[in-house]
Amino acid sequence: MGCTQSHEDSEAKARNAEIEEQLKRDRQNMAREIKMLLLGAGESGKSTVLKQMRLIYNKPYDAEERDSYREIVYSNTVQSMRVLLEGVVAMGLDISSANQAHYNLILAAPALIEGDRFPPSLANAIKGLWQDEGVREAFSRRNELQLNDSAPYYFDAITRLANPAYVPTDQDILRARVKTTGITETHFQIGELKYKLFDVGGQRSERRKWLGVFENVTALVFLIAISEYDQMLYEDETVNRMTEAMTLFESVANSRWFIKTSIILFLNKIDLFRAKLPHSPLANTFPEYKGGANYDAACAFLLEKFVALNQNPSKSIYAVTLHRRHRHARACVRRFCCSRRYYPGQLARVRSSLVLGECRACRSLPASP
């Protein structure tokens, strides 16, 4: 009897030890797993950031995936030219008589361009129209239109896109625009840390899926298309995109679901922002801004506008600027985004979790008074 009891006790202890060891391993794995929620208004560039992360830290696109992007690139290119042509009409501009047939062809083209090759007639039409003075004038006023940022890139590459042997490059894929619906999840690993990055649609109709679903994420990455300060929403052309982004950020930063969650403000499309400032004054949208076309002053002004929306003094907010440099995007924290305190431990986490480049210095931003 005693031997039987002793044997059962030994088995129970062994099982308990095994369970404890498994729990310990699970806790260690959880400690090495960082969950991040990628948020932002529509057109803020969330999907592009995800694709960039995949290319750098996960795996390249295989031949089948590249083939699947071919029709997307074709359709984006034709649709962008259609938007410009509609802008020509709305702005009271003219198309040259030499391009009238091209104009009619683009407007009659289907929304989805299917097939393994860019139709030569459409390629020739885009090539001719892109040189048209009326189209160029409409493009110079593109902030009045719902035009993809990738439009000039694809127009300039039209000969390459129309080549029968065309295969989308990494850059073509990064610039391809597909509306995000629902929730997508991207996994990648850096050293011992495993990252799960969740992306949800930025359009108004998708936002109800955000709150409450990711209460326990490590951090929120909120993307701001900083170049869109003079543009209107796709869904409502009476609402400024930057104003909409601020409204959205305020609701997220002060949500009861994310009270203790750190926020990384990702200032995206700053290359476009820098180029636009001299021609489209920031003061037209924000009359209180007095910094003229000074890039650093404009960035600091917009950043402070967002930070001031945070009502929680204990919340950590970090600011990072993202721009294209050669093949890859680069990320760095601007020196103007700072308070009196350094957080070297948090810097390591922010640097590793952003993973797009060189966060040389990261400082926590204060909450609004």
From TrEMBL:
- Determine if Cell membrane is one of this entry's keywords: no
Keyword Nucleus belongs to the record: no
Its required cofactor(s), as named, are:
Mg(2+)
Leader sequence range is: none
**For this protein, what is any one GO molecular function term?**
GTP binding
Per the record, the similarity remark reads: Belongs to the G-alpha family.
Name of the featured protein: Guanine nucleotide binding protein, alpha subunit
Lineage of the native species? Eukaryota, Fungi, Dikarya, Basidiomycota, Agaricomycotina
